[in-house]
Every structure is written in structure tokens, then in C-alpha cells.
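Q: I'm writing up a methods section and want to include an example of the input and output format. Could you take the sequence below and give the corresponding predicted C-alpha cells, formatted cleanly so I can copy it straight into the document?
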Amino acid sequence: MVIEHLPPTRSSMDSSGRESHSILWTYEVPTEIRLMTDKRSVELYLKLLESGSEKKRDIRLVVVGKKGAGKTSLIKRLFGEDNTDVTSTNGIEIHKIKCKAMSDDGIWNKLDGNYEETETHARLLKEYEGKLQDKGTTEEPVQSQFAIKDNTPATSFDESKTSGTVYQQPKIMTPLVTTESQVEPPVTSQKPNQSLEQAKKDIETMLQSNVDLHDKEEYATLLLWDFAGDEEFYHTHQTFLSPDAIYLVVTKLNEAGDKEAQDLFQLWMDSIHCYSRLEEDGHRFDVNEKTSDDLDPPIVIVGTWKDALISDVQEIDDACSESILKYTENMSEDELRHIRQEYFISNTEDDPSVFQQIRENILNLARKMKTWNKDYPLKFIQLETRLQEKKKELPIISFQEIQNIASDTPKPLNDEELRFFLEFHHEIRALVYFKDLPSYIILDTQWLSDAFRYIVTAKKFRAISIKNRKKWDELYSRGKLHSEVLEDIFKKKRITCLQHTRTIF
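A: Here is the clean output for your methods example:
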């Protein structure tokens, strides 16, 4: 990621009617913010950018399809892992991956919780480094003064070689002009000494991370969501769908004539199409933007079980194409505009190069998306860092607590900025926050997915509670979920934050 401080360049349209900077700025704002109902959202985001920003390159990759289609096996092959012993996904599994933003090497590096935190620390540490060097407060490189550890390898998914991964970040560019009037200070009760002490603590924590300040490579973050194919989960999956994702719709080539397989394929295509931006396509923010027949979000169809396809057709690829035609024959013209590519694969027999090609093409698709390379406030990164630490303790946080944290960062957020942060991160599915239910925020979306999984598969827990038998009966006869039943389920699964279940559900 490239971290840079951007001077304000906004202006209104001039008297001649020429294109104004404000329109160009608006186009640089993430889609989720431009489409918010609050018309002040864009202006607020631009104001936050004035205190420092980075270029954000995030990819959301969602894998969906019928149970048994080979989704988990496909993901394992994309990760370069052995898929001889595969267990079907139960609910939703979320993986975070790092890759080079401008390279076509097809290498994905999986991040665990610690490395996710390291990535965020690096983004902030680069800012401090740039400020020190810009002010000339040190005659030697900042790296030589910092004891930066680099001794823990990550998993590399380049199947042609084995390599340790150094977590590297790009350089910083500082603003040509900086004035105090550019940034409106947030309303906060934080004292200067408290702010300084917290900044010192944050830097010390960051310096204990595996951060390499030497590398100038630009990186992208890929968040992969593996959705279970069980029909019971379909309605809970809707919570996690996003208009700014790339979707892999996985289907079995040898079941193209099966009515159930066709219906489930169509269900996913319809669900994804609900997030299309037909309205936005009619309103271009940049007059120079080229129009396209493609419709977002992009869909890649992956036909699996190629090795099990029986056909009289001489060429196997022709038989695969015929299968996909059967799946898509009832789709509308608008739905077909989502489809970017089709792959016909065997998860058991295909060479690793097939899956490397898929990885490369996914990154190429990401570079063309409107969310790629958007400006992102550094103030948000500071709060993200603190929330990552909090998420290790509990998956849920009260608004009051997050309010206290937001006012205790080196660059505090006021209440308006905090609510804006929460709304935006809800839209990109980084957390769960509802304005009409603001008391609690779910920091861990994997935890929420697990909670949904326990609820929709609750029948297996019925025998654990005799006294709540009638309430369990109502769940299956009327679909009414009593809080007592919910507590029965979560106690059995030893789920954390049981005390918040009545508030959340």
C-alpha cells in the first residue's frame, strides 16, 4: 500500500461550466460513501483525508455454490494446499490474504490474526517514519534506530517454489504544503499528555511487530469468504454479500441437466444481481470514464468436476461450454453482464498452473474495479489497530466503549466521524453496525457467521432443554425464536458473549 498525505484540491464548478475538482474528488471516494443517504458523507470523508491518507487496495472474493460443488477443494488448490482430505464448509469461513498489487506472479500469502495486526502496524509506522525524516530529526535511516523483528514466515501459495515471506510496505510521500487550517480538530476530551502517552505506547507496540521498512513493493489485501452450500444457510449469507466483491460461482459441470442444480445456480446469480449498480451506471462521476457492457459486481463462473463429465462431444471443452450454457439459459441480459470469465477445472487432476492462472486473473479483475486504489484516511487506520486488539478479547463491543477508544487515539475521531467510520465499515462488511440498533457493534464477522450457523442447525440441540420444550416446538412450527432457545443453543456451543445475545438477536 502507498501511504501519502494529500493536500486539499477541492473546488466548485467555475462560471464556464468546466469540470470541477469537486466532481473528480467525488469520484475518488468509495462507492459505499457516495451512495450513503446522508449527503454530508462525501464532504466528511474528504475532510478526513486531509489529515493524511493511503491508497487502499482491498479485494473481497466471495465463493458460493451448491453443496458438494467443490468450493472448499477449489480454495485449497488456490491456496496451494493438499485437498485429499476436505471437510465441507459449515457456515462461512473467512481468510485474509496478501499479494503484490502490481505483479502477475500469482502468489498469495495467507495472514493469520497476528500478521493482520502487523499489516496495520506497518501502515501506521510508515507515517511516523515519514514525518521524522521529513522534519530532519534524524541523520540516519529510521530503520537503523528501530529494533524491527523479521523472523516469522508466512504461508506462500506459489506452488512452484517455497519461500518465507517478509511483511513489507511501500514508502511514504509527504505533503508539499501543510497548514493547520486544513484539518478541523475533532471534539474530544483527551488531554495532550494522554495523547502523547498513547502515541508512544502505539509506536512501541508497532515496533514489536514483524515490520520491514525497506521494501518498496505495493501490496493488496484479499479477503476471501467461503460460503457453505447447505440450503439452510442461504438466507443468512445475504448479510455478508457486498456490491464491491468479486464472486466465484462454483457449479458441477456434470449436473447441468439437474433441475435442483440449475435452480440453486440461478438463486446465486439473482442474489448477486441484487447488488448491481444499474442506477450508478447511469450517473458517471467522471466525464472521461469509459462506458462498458460489463456490470458490477463481477462474476467468475467455475465449472468443476470436469473429469466426471461424460459426453459424446469429441472436445471436452465443448462439452463444458454446453453445460454452462444450460446453467445460464434462463438468465436475463442484465445478469449475463456480470459474467467476466469461465473456467472448467478438475480439483483433483488439473496442474497447479491452472489455479495460478485463476489467481492472476482475479487480481487483474480487482485492478479494474471502482474500489481499487481509493484514498483512505489514516485516522481510520489508528482506530482499526485498537479494534483489532479489542477483537482478541471479545467479538462484540459497546458503542460507549468504542467511543472511548476513538477519543484516545493520537488523531481522535469525534462522534460524527466515529459513526461515519462504523457505517462505512459496515458497508464493506468489516464489522456489523446498525444505526437503528447502535448499542453494540460486532467486530468479528466470523463470530456472527458461527452464531448464524448454530441457529440454522439448531435442531440437533433440542434434547438439551426439557423445560424450554414448548419454545423449541414454536421454533419449528411457527419459526419463532425465543431468547431462551437462543441461550440453550449458545450455552451448548460455549459461544462467547452470551450476555449480548438478546440484544443482538
